[in-house]
Amino acid sequence: MEQMTEQGIQIEEALDNIQKLVENIETVIRGKRTQIQFILTALLAKGHILMEDNPGTGKTVMAKTLAQSISGRTNEGGVNFKRIQFTPDLLPMDLIGSHIFDDVKKEFIFKKGPLFCNVLLADEINRASPKVQSALLECMAEHQITMGETTYPLEKMFFTIATQNPVEMEGTYPLPAAQLDRFFIKIIFGYVDEETELEIYNNYLGIANNLEHIRQVLSMEEILFLQNEAERVFIHAEIVKAVRNIIWDTRRHSDIVLGASTRSGITFLKCLKAFALVNGRTFVTEDDLQKITPAVLDHRLIYRNKDAKAKGLASILNKEMDRLSKLKLS
Amino acid sequence: MQIGRIHSWKKVTAQLILLALPTVALALYLLLNTNRFYSFLQNNWIEQGLYFTTGLVVSIIFYSYRFRFITTALLLFGAYFIAYKLLGQLSVGEFDAFFVSVKFLIFSLLFSAGWLAGYGFSRSRYFTIFWSVFLLGMQIVVVSKTSEVTANALISAFAPVLIYAFYIIYTSELIRNMNEDEPGFGWFITKRLAGFISLSVILLFSMLLIFQKQFNSIEQDWGGSQGGNKKNGGKESMTKQNKDGSLSNKDQMKMTGSLSKDKRLVFVAKLDNYFPDGKTPNPLYFTSTYYTKFDTATQTFEEDKNFPKNDLFSPDPSKIPLYFTKVDTAAITNTMATLNRKVISADIYKVILSPNEYIAPSTAFFCQPLPVENEYKKQFKSAYRAKMWVSDLNSAYFIYNPAGNKQLETFQQQRFQMLRKATSYDGLDKKFMDYYTYMPRNEEYNRITELATRITKDAKTPVDKMIAIRDHFTSKDQFGQPLFRYSDNPGIPGLPSASKLNYFLFENRKGYCAYFAGATLFMLRSLGIPSRIAAGFLTVDRSSKNPGWYWFYADQAHAWVQLYFPGYGWMDFDTTVPDQNTQQSPQPDGTPPMNTQQALMVADGEALSVDTIAKRVTMKVKKMLFHDENVPTPEAKDLLMDVSIASVTRDTGTGKLSDIKAGTNIVAVSYAEALKNIMANETDNLASLIVKLPKPAPVDEIKIMETEQQKKDREKQQEPASKPFDWAKALWIALGVIGFFILLLFSLPWLIWLYLNGKAKSDAANARIKAYNIYMASMYYLNQLGITRESQSPQQFAETADRRFGSNFNSFTNVYQKIKYSTTPLTAKEEALVQNFYEPFKEQVRNDIPFKQRFGSFLNIYNTLHYFTKSKIS
Questions:
Q1: Mind listing the pLDDT tens digit for each residue in B74-126?
Q2: Inter-chain residue contact A322 with B870, CB threshold 8 Å
Q3: Helix (H, G, I), strand (E, B) or coil at B708
Q4: CB-CB: which of A282, A286, A315 is closest to B794?
C-alpha cells in the first residue's frame, strides 16, 4: 500500500515534470504545443522524430531548447547536444567518428563522432547521400556503433530530431520507406499563427535571445524515469484492437500500395502510451488515438495517388473512431 | 499468367448464394409458367432452368477474375457459332438438324441470359434495376397473354417478381458495399437480410389483408365474364362472372370502350315454339332482364325495379323444390297483350349459367325446376321448365335479316302487315307512356331526335318507323360500304364530354349490341314510341338434328330493343348489324339432355336421419307431389326412403349421400314403377298417402336445397364483389397508410431521443453504465441538433460543444473516457460530475437553441441516419 502511494506520488510528480518541460519549451517556442507534445512523445517512447518543413520555421531552436531544458550528469550546461548539418558530401565517418593514429600511444584511437550525444539534431537529413542516411538510421535503431571489432554503445538517452525539407525541393535524396519507418513520429512543423508570429517578433526585439536564458527544468534521470513510466501506461484492449484494425485497414485499402508493418503497430502502441503520459494521463483514450495516428502512420504508408494521401488514413481512422465512440459499455 | 481477382471467394460465394440462388428459383418459376402456355419445341422447364443456371453460375465465377466483358462475350458468341456449325455437320437427317438447331437456339438464348445476368451481378452496379424492370416487363407481357384477371392469378404472377425485384436490388447493393474482410461478414449479411425479408413479408401481408376486398372488387371490375384462358383487361362483357364461376347477365350495360366475348357453352334450351306449319322451329330471344331507364350521369342503362306494368318474372330456380312450380300470372296481365298470344314452354339446362338465374323468352310466368338425367349430370348442373305468354309475331327470325330465305321473308312481311294495324298509342296510360318514352333533353339527344325524324319521315306506323331505323343501320354509304359496322372494340370518343351514343351514331359508327340497342331506343323514344332494352341471349338455330333445341354460348349474350304495340304487347327488335369479322359460332351442337322419365312422387322437406351404409334416408315431408298432383299436407310427416340407387345433386353440380345431414333441406324424386299403380284418392292427405307407399319408399333422385343461411352467406360473399370498386376509399386508405408511415418516419428521431433520454435519466446500476447512457444520449441529442462529431476526437467535439453552450461537456467526456479505458477508480469529484452533468447540460443546450430550431432539427431524419450510419473507409 505504502509502495502504491509512493508510486502514486512519483507518477504525480512525473506528470508535473512533463508539464514543466512543456511549459519551459513553450517560453521559447510559442504556439507549438501540439508539436512539442509530439516531440516529447517520441522522446518518452524512446524513439526519434522527423520534422518536415521549410527552413526557418523553428525546428533547430526547438531541438536546442529541448536539449537545454534537460540537465545532464556533467555540469557542462545540460545534456550533450550535437547538431549535424547534412550535405551531399557528408560521409558516414563524419557522424560516427573515425580511428585516428595517436602519435603518443602509437596506436589508433577512436575519435567519437557527433552521434555520441544525448540529443542530436540531424538537420536536412534528406540532403545527405543515402549512405550517410542509412548509417545514421542504423545507429538510431541499434543504439550502438560497431567499428571493426569494437562496439561502442551510444548514450542511454539518445534522441534524434531529424528535419527534412519537403521532398519536392531540389537537391534532396528522399528517405526510403524502410528508413522512414525508424522514426517513431513524423510531424509537419508548420508556421505559427499570425498573433503568435507578431509576439515572436516583439519578443525578439525586447529580450535579445530567449534561448540563452532557458532554464534546466528536468534532469536526465527524470527523463529516463519518465521513459520507464511511459512503458507502464495502461492501454485498454479495445484500443489495442483499434490499433490492430487500423494497421490492417491500411494493408487492405485499395489506394494504399504499402500498408503499415507489424513493427509499426508496436511503435504505434509505444507512442500511444507516451502520448497519454505527455497529456497527463496514465491510460490511453480515443483522443490519443485520434491525435497521434497521422503522426505515427502517415510516413510509413505509400499511397497510390494524392487523393488517397489526403483521405486514406483519415477515413480509416474515422471508421475506427466511430466504432470506439459507439462502443457499448457493460 | 496469373489473372487478378476482382472479388474474393467470400464475395463470390455470397453472390452465388444470395443473388444467383433466388434468381434461379425465380427463373424456374417463370419458365414453368411460360412453358404452360407457350410451346418451345420440347417443354422441359427443368432443362431450360439448368441452361440458365449454368450460364449464371459460370459467369459469376468467371467475372470474379479480371476479364473484360466485350472480348469475352465476343468469344462466347464465337463459341456458339462454331458449336452451331459443328452441330450442323454432326446431325443426320433434316428433321434432326432442325430439332437440334432449335434446341441449340434455346440453349444459347438461356445460357446467354444467365451469362449476362451473372456479369451484371458481378460487375455492374445498376444491373439489378434493369434486370428487375426487364423481368417485370416480361412478366406483364406473359401474364397479359396467358392469365385471367383474378386477384389470385395476379398475385401469384406478380408477387414473386416484385418480391424478387426488391430483394435483388437490396441484396446486390448490400453485397457490393460489404467489406468482405471484415470479421463476421456472413453473420452481418444474414442479419440484414433476415430483417429485410421479415419487413417485406409483413408489409406484403398487411397490404394483402388491407386491400383484399379491393382486390376482389378490381377482379370483378376487370375480370368480367372472361375467366377462360384470355385476359380482357378493361373490356366490357355482356355477362358477368359470379364467384362460383357461373355466369349471369350483367346488371348494368355500361357503354364503355370495348366488349369481349368467349365461346363457352352457357346453357341449352328446348323451346316448343313452332311456326303455324307445326314443323319449322321458331326461335325466340331469351330475356334475362329489361333496362328501362337511362342514367345520364353515368351513361348507363339501368334496371329499374319499379317500372310500370312490370312483366318481368324472375324467380330464383334454386329456391324452388324439384318439380314444384312458381307461377306469377301478374306478368301476363302486365304485358297488356291479348292479340296473337299463346302459352309455350321451354326447358333450360344450365351449364355455367348461375343456378339463381332465370332466363326465358318474354313473357315468362312459370318456373319448375327439373332434375337432370344421370348421364348428363356432368355437363348440366341444373334445369328448369319455363312457360311463357309469347306472341306469334315474335321470332328471332323477324329480328335479324332473313338473308334471302323466302319463307322467312314472307313471315316477316306478314308480321309487319299485322303490326301496321297498331298505329296509335292513344288511350294508353299516361304514366306508362311517359315512362317508356322518356329521354334526356339536351343538344346531344336533340341530334338523335333530328336523325330519327329524318330517317323515319316517310314511315307512318310505329313498325314502319322501326323498320326505317333498322334500314338506317343496315344502309350503305356513298361508296357502297356498310354505314355501320359491328365492333367489339369501338374505341372511345375523343372529346370526353361528348355522349358516346352521339359518337357512335355520327362519327365512328362502330359498336356492339349495346350501342345499337341504345341508339335505337333513343330514336324510338324520340318518336314517341314506348320502348325498352332487353338483355339476354340471342338464339341461333343451328340444329337440324334436334328441332327446337338451341345452344347458347357466352358470345351470344346480347341486348336489343323491345317496342310496345297496343294489343300485341312487347315485340323484340334487333338492330345490331352482323359482325362481319367473326364467324358465327361454328361449335357443333351436343346431344340434348332429354328428360324422358316421369316423376311419380316428389317430396320436399327436411332430412331427419341419414344412414349412408344401409342407404336409408328419413325425411320430414312438408310438401308432396304425387302423380303430378299436389297432396294436401295438413301437417308434416316422416317418410323412410330407400336411396340405394338415388343420385344426389345440388345446384352447383352432383353431390354425395354424405352431403346430406340431419336438417338439410332436400327434395326426393321417385320414378319407381312400384309407385305407378298406387293411386291417390280425392280424400287422401299426406299421412294417408305415406301409409300406402312401400317402406322404404324407393327414391331415384335427391336434390339438396340451399338453406336460407347458406344463401345469405353466399350473397354476403357476393355482395362486396358486386359493389363497384371504391377508388376514393382505396385512395384514402392508401394515403392514410402512407401518411402514417411518413408520420412514423418523421417522429422516429424524437422516439429514439425519448428512449435514450429516458435511459440517461434513469438510475443505472453503477456510474459506469450511467455515464455511458448519458454520453450516448448527449451525443445523439447534439447530433440531432446538427452538431455532429464528424472527424473530431471526443475531446475536440466536447470542446466545440462547450464553446457554444458554455457547458462542461469536455470534463464529462474526460471522465467518460477514463471510465471507458482505464482501470483507475473514479474520484468522488468525478462521480459527482457524472451524477450532476446531464440535466444542466440539456438546459444549457436548450437555452442556446430556440425551440423552433430544435423542433425543426428533430424532424430531420437525415441527422438521425447520419448518427447511425457507420463510417466507411473511402
A1: 998 999 889 888 877 775 666 666 777 788 888 888 899 999 999 988 888 78
A2: yes
A3: helix
A4: A286
Which CATH number do you get for residue A95? 3.40.50.300
Amino acid at A310: A
Last residue of a domain, one of A214, A232, A250: A232
Q: Which residue of B has its CA nearest to A290?
A: B793
B342 shares contact with chain A (CB less than 8 Å): no
B222 to chain A, minimum CA–CA distance in Å?
55
∠ CA(B783), CA(B784), CA(B787), 5° rounding?
40
Cβ of A282 and B789 within 8 Å?
no
Is residue A40 within 8 Å of A273, Cβ to Cβ?
no
What's the Cα-to-Cα distance from B709 to each of A204, B175, B652, B712, rounded to whole Å? 109, 57, 17, 5
| A227 and A308 belong to one structural domain | no
Q: Which of A232, A254, A276 is the last residue of a domain?
A: A232
Q: With an 8 Å Cβ cutoff, are B874 and A286 in contact?
A: no
CB–CB contact B794 A284 (8 Å): no
B580 touching A, CB under 8 A?
no
Could you give the CA distance from residue A240 to residue A42 in angstroms, rounded to a whole number? Answer: 19
User: Cα separation of B615 and B700, whole Å?
Assistant: 12
Nearest chain A residue (CA) to B815: A285
Task: Kindly list the residues from chain B whose CB atom is less than 8 angstroms away from the CB atom of residue A245.
Answer: none
Q: What's the domain range around A329?
A: 234-330
For residue B220, pLDDT over 90 is answered with: no
Task: Indicate yes or no: CB of B822 within 8 angstroms of CB of A325.
Answer: no
CA distance B4 to B7: 9
| Chain B nearest CA to A14, separation (Å) | 17
Say yes or no: A81 and A223 in one domain: yes
Spell out which residues of chain A touch residue B769, defining contact as CB-CB under 8 Å.
329-330
Residues A80 and A172 in one domain: yes
Please write the tens of the pLDDT for every residue from B554-587.
777 888 888 888 888 888 888 887 766 555 555 5
Name the pTM for this structure: 0.51
Q: Residue B791: list chain A partners with CB under 8 A.
A: 314, 317-318, 321
Domains in chain A, number: 2
B537, β-bridge pairs:
B286, B557
Q: Is B795 on the interface with A (CB under 8 A)?
A: yes
The CA distance from B778 to B756, in Å, is 9
The domains located in chain B, with CATH, are 9-223 (no CATH), 601-705 (2.40.50), 741-868 (no CATH)
Q: Which of B235, B288, B238, B266 is nearest to B516 (CA)?
A: B238
Q: Which residues pair with B564 in a beta bridge?
A: B570
Cell reading at A108: 589508433
Residue numbers in A near B768 (CB within 8 A): 329
Q: Which DSSP helix (H) or strand (E) runs through B342?
A: strand B341-350
